[in-house]
Write a structure and sequence with these properties.
Structural class: alpha/beta
CATH architecture of the largest domain: 3-Layer(aba) Sandwich
Distance between the termini: 32 Å
Number of strands: 17
CATH topology of the largest domain: Rossmann fold
Shape: globular
Strand content: 35-45%
Number of helices: 7
Amino acid sequence: MRAILIEDEPLARDELRYHVLNAGVEVVAESDRTEGAETLVRTHQPDVVFLDIELQDGSGLDVAKRLQSIPHAPAIIFVTAYDAHALEAFELNAYDYVLKPYDPHRIRRALDKIGRPALRKSPRFERLAVESGDQLKLLSPQDIHYVVAEGGKTKLTTDSGEYSSNETLTELERKLSEHRFLRVHRSYIVNLEAIEAIEPWFNGAYNIKIGRMDLPVSRTYVKTLKDALGI
């Protein structure tokens, strides 16, 4: 199953992406506005669109109305911080209406309504190809401590060194989701088995200690991290 996310809050979109990927759904495109949404859907032909109702440049309800005229229109799952538009949303034949903050079980139930048999589980990747000089080196996921996106590049850190990848952080997150990796920040994915300690930081955020490195955990991911670690 293929999904498009239309959500104008970056942190909320990061969290939504994480839960959608973990549900075995491929995220093929994202946007933070109503403008161009119809073109995005026509181009990528997703099975489902997660659509925020109140976007900065307009209403997701208006987007949903326009999408109804598309041949083989995608299923719509509205996402919002308020329940005031629930009736209007269902009048537009929405499959579901998910309130923020996001609950992974609630998102899975919403996808169930579309038809879980259609879901294709992402293949399990046992090794990843990374750049090592003029060669490609194959890394086992358990050897990777964390992945960071910075300066337009994606880097993977291991005991043996740091390697570059041509894949985006989102693509690597999907591949590593079966190997106890978790996104903890817009720019970081960590191997849960490599975490040595976590400590509170400012404004509800946390730090993760892996070796000599301190990695940030944004507030959006603190609960998800604690749940994953059983604390």
